[in-house]
Design goal:
Helices cover about 70% and strands about 5% of the residues. The chain has ten helices and three strands, in the order H-H-E-E-E-H-H-H-H-H-H-H-H.
Length: about 250
């Protein structure tokens, strides 16, 4: 019983961690599953790179290494819903474990073309929200879409997120300034701001703050550092463009 319980808790935590859930949410979900399985008290230690869980007053400890992380809030919601169904008695532990295994095998990703179109729309919308004009909307949509395409290609080729964001931001900066000087756009600043927004690590910043407020200082600082490095790469790229073309 305890082995299956620990396996279930670890798998639920692993899916949530790989989907970029907050640390306190991971610990809370695993603890609720344990309590609903017979009032077991789960002892856990969660970091961005690993999960350590055990049953209180026993010598059984299990761990799971986290090697891949992405933003997939849909999986986080599905794990939460499954845990609630289990706590409510709608699922057995065996059924919960089986559904978690099936969820772990799912690859819930939007197609590349939809990601690019969405990034272009977000770029245009944020450019307008920050005070841009509708005259700049078409060129912002184009630059935002191409910039995000370069980011995805760089991510697949280099496998280093920071470098991919740096290259995409370089293109966005050059393209925004050139288009404004050639008369295709009015405000190069608004165009650039709108186009870099899809690259900004908003989820990481939010989760870092929520972890810090929940008392998970280690994960909060590490996530905050990762977000700061990403934002710095974007800033360095734009600053380099302005220095070169200013």
């Amino acid at each position: 019983m305890t082995d299956k319980l620990l396996e279930t808790c670890l798998l639920a935590g692993k899916i949530m961690m790989e989907s970029n859930a907050e640390m306190y949410r991971v610990e809370d979900t695993m603890s609720r599953i344990a309590l609903a399985s017979g009032n077991y008290r789960l002892v856990s230690y969660v970091t961005q790179t690993g999960l350590f869980v055990g049953i209180d007053q026993t010598s059984t400890i299990r761990m799971e290494q986290i090697t891949n992380r992405s933003i997939n809030l849909e999986k986080v919601v599905k794990v939460n819903n499954l845990s609630r169904e289990y706590v409510a008695g709608q699922l057995t532990l065996t059924e919960l474990l089986q559904k978690l295994k099936e969820l772990d095998k799912e690859r819930i990703f939007f197609p590349v073309w939809l990601q690019i179109v969405s990034a272009a729309i977000v770029s245009g919308a944020i450019m307008i929200l920050f005070g841009g004009t509708f005259h700049d909307l078409p060129i912002t949509l184009v630059i935002g879409g191409i910039g995000y395409t370069l980011f995805l290609c760089g991510l697949r080729f280099f496998r280093i997120r920071f470098l991919a964001e740096f290259l995409a931001s370089l293109f966005i900066g050059f393209a925004g300034i050139l288009c404004a000087r050639m008369g295709f756009g009015v405000s190069q600043d608004m165009i650039i701001i709108g186009c870099v927004m899809p690259l900004v690590p908003g989820v990481q910043i939010t989760n870092a703050i929520r972890d810090l407020l929940a008392g998970h200082y280690l994960s909060g600082v590490s996530r905050g550092t990762e977000a700061l490095m990403t934002a710095s790469m974007i800033g360095f790229a734009i600053a380099f463009v302005f220095q070169f073309m200013g």
